[in-house]
Amino acid sequence: MPLRAFRSPHIWATPVTMIILLSLALPACYLSGITDPQTNMRRLPVALVVGPQQEGGALDGTARSVADAVRTGTDQKKIRLVTMSPAEMATAMRENAIYGAVVIPEDFDHTLAGLVSATPGTVPAPPVVTIVTNAGAGNLTAGLVNGTMSPVLAAVQRSVAERLGVSADPYRALVLQEPFAVRTVPDRVLPPRSGSGLTPFYLALVTILIGFIAASTIHPAVDAAIGFAPSEVGPFTTRRRYRPATRTTTLLAKFAVLLAVAPIAAVLLNLTAAVVIGVPMDHPLVMWLLLTSAIAAVGIGALSVFAVFGGPGALINTFFFVAMSLATGPSVPSEALPRWLRAATSITAMPPILDAVRAVLFFDGRGTAGLTYGWTHIAVGGTVGLTLGLTTTWWYDRNPRLSRHPAEAMVTAGAPPG
């Protein structure tokens, strides 16, 4: 076949079109979510905690006024402010139900009263309002909480200062310009080698990649083993004698290979992360079961896409399992994604796997912290992939025009059988 024959659009049109589409889709996926999460924020869950106040004399009720001002000053479209007790906040943090909290301490009124009525020349410490961030949710989420609530508290500081008035004592006058301090702290210190909260993301990403690459390897390997497709290694090309097999039987064989290798891959992934690298893992058995199921579900879905779409399935799998996973799961909470990406989190692989891995690593394996959500979506995704693949191949097998036999395909195309 001469080189000039390759100028035919039938040869290059499809790959060129797919590359153009991916060149548009990939930056849209990768950059849309991370470029401006502050603007995209919608109803990020944050707690407002006001401890029962000690008696503070004339300033009784100031803590409640500060809480009311925080509620009024918070953009309810961006932040879903939930009033909680200290105990409820602690539980919500452990269950990954909130991303942060604004905590007004029990001694707020009492300490503020002491600041106002202090002996001239003395500068007592002001009360402290704390922005508590959920360490397990990652640094970017902590930044979103702090970046949104700090300006609100700064405005409340000014309003309280105006209410207290100006003192003749220059020391107290200076202090009363900011009648309470604001500090930001994480709810807890993550264990060493936690990657500033990003370890679950990379572990989830590797899990998805193993499932995706496993399917991409098993698909051509089984086709080559039955003689349907040639096997090429470097300059060597071989083709086994073709053994007729239906599409459904072939897909079931691919599923079997995947399900056999998934637990082995999960064990090696677990050992590498926990033993070689030193990632803290308090629930290794739960993690192994989770990673095995995730690899199997992703691999089943990818193999089914290959069975349904053939060659273009490689690009479809790359976009869905890699590009969309990176776009919807890394470090930006779903509440801070653009609307179209937020909708995609319900069908892409990354969010449930990431939430489940994060629950095992950082939240003591609690079902309410994301593990139950992950198990459910992994089961549903694997079932959908299995059903899609087997139903489609069964239908293909029942239609003689869609036969997978190479000789029949050539006859259909008008070429002499060989």
Query: Helicity level, as a percent range?
Result: 55-70%
Number of domains: 2
Order of helices and strands: HHEHEHEHEHHEHEEHHHHHHH
Q: Roughly what fraction of the amino acids lie in strands?
A: 5-15%
Class of secondary structure makeup: alpha/beta
The strands making up the biggest β-sheet line up spatially as 2-1-3-4-5
Number of helices: 15
Question: What would the principal axes of the Cα set say about the shape?
Answer: elongated
The radius of gyration over CA amounts to 29 Å
Beta strands, count: 7
Instruction: Give the end-to-end Cα distance, rounded to a whole number of Å.
Output: 19 Å
Largest sheet: 5 strands, mixed
**Could you tell me the mean pLDDT?**
87
Report the uncertain regions: 408-418
Provide an overview of this structure:
The protein is of the alpha/beta class. The chain has two domains: 148 residues, abc type-2 transporter like fold, CATH 3.40.1710; 218 residues, no CATH class. 59% of the residues lie in helices and 9% in strands. The strands form two sheets. Strands 2-1-3-4-5 form a five-stranded mixed β-sheet. Helix 9 runs antiparallel to helix 10. The radius of gyration is 29 Å and the shape is elongated. The C terminus is likely disordered.
